[in-house]
Amino acid sequence: MYDKCVVGAGGAGGAGCLAQTGMSPIWVILAGFALLAVGTAVMRIVPRRAAVR
User: Keywords assigned by UniProt (predicted)?
Assistant: First the structure.
């Protein structure tokens, strides 16, 4: 029940899974990259303040 980790991506017997969540580190890295990409895309859309002199 608690060992449903992908063996091919995680190593032998699910050794590459996170201890409590059962998530593979590959998915965590991909999710972090996706959040970074969304953040940079939003920052490009948001108008910047004009410099006050």
Answer: Membrane, Transmembrane, Transmembrane helix
